[in-house]
Design a protein that fits this description.
Elements lengths: L2 H11 L4 H8 L3 H9 L6 H11 L3 H6 L14 H4 L4 E2 L9 E13 L11 E8 H6 L7 E7 L12 E5 L9 E7 L2 E10 L3 E5 L9 E3 L7 E11 L3
Parallel strand pairs: 2-4
Antiparallel strand pairs: 1-3, 2-3, 4-5, 5-10, 6-7, 6-10, 7-8, 8-9
Helix pairs in contact: 2-3
Length: 234
């Protein structure tokens, strides 16, 4: 099944027509027509908006990932999980808000990895406590970092920001995780393989083919945490 067929499947399930998609996503009629007809695929902000409307995850919509159900999503953009904005120590928090550190000089590579990492606690991002609770995230075990590289495009373009739950280190097939791969920090989609191995997958399959590691080789890979949120500027 192609991406356009999955789009039409969700539209039918939700009783949506193209005119509804245009109105709800803010995309042009031409763009929506191309998505439905398979002439092009949504990306960036349009992809996020479309997935919100169709109530599905980007990896399922684009690639048919069976591990990504077409109902609820455990990691979405800010409009799904709550608004976020940079703030400083002088900015008062509301009773339902909590601050998460934003490591401005930590770049989790979406390419082949980064070896040298400097942690600089710069601006903070604020989240609603209810948002984190709904995702099962303890604020004391979460942080936001910047992604670099193009291997996770179109879902995570270069410069995207992700929220990482460092208390969630058990691999769930098809979910995005931040990992320390033998000294390289990366953000990838992970899958378990027989024998205790691990498959590392990028959304940009053409430039970054799957990497499969045996049970012995996987010892050099440390799971930092699961990506529970991401934000994209285009």
């Amino acid at each position: 099944m192609s991406a356009s067929e999955r789009i039409k499947q969700r539209m039918q399930a939700l009783d949506l027509k193209a005119v509804h998609i245009v109105k709800l996503t803010g995309a042009s009629k031409g763009s929506v027509s191309q998505w439905v007809n398979g002439a092009s695929k949504p990306s960036g902000r349009n992809l996020i908006a479309l997935c919100k409307v169709l109530q599905c995850q980007p990896d399922w919509l684009l690639f048919g990932d069976e591990s990504a159900p077409s109902g609820q999503s455990e990691h979405g953009n800010a409009s799904w999980l709550g608004e976020m904005e940079p703030w400083h120590s002088q900015t008062a928090l509301s009773p339902d808000e909590v601050e998460l550190p934003f490591f401005t000089e930590v770049a989790l590579s979406a390419g082949h990895g980064m070896v040298e990492v400097r942690e600089n606690h710069g601006p903070k991002l604020r989240f609603a406590r209810s948002t984190l609770k709904r995702q099962g995230v303890d604020p004391g075990h979460a942080a936001c970092v910047k992604v670099s590289g193009n291997s996770m495009e179109p879902v995570l373009p270069d410069g995207a920001t992700v929220g990482v739950d460092t208390a969630s280190t058990t691999v769930t097939d098809g979910k995005m995780f931040a990992i320390d791969h033998d000294g390289m920090l990366r953000v990838k989609t992970l899958y378990r393989v027989p024998g205790g191995g691990l498959r590392i997958r990028s959304f940009n399959h053409e430039e970054y083919p799957d990497e499969t590691y045996s049970g012995d080789e996987v010892q050099q890979i440390r799971i930092i945490g699961k990506v529970f949120w991401y934000s994209v500027l285009v």
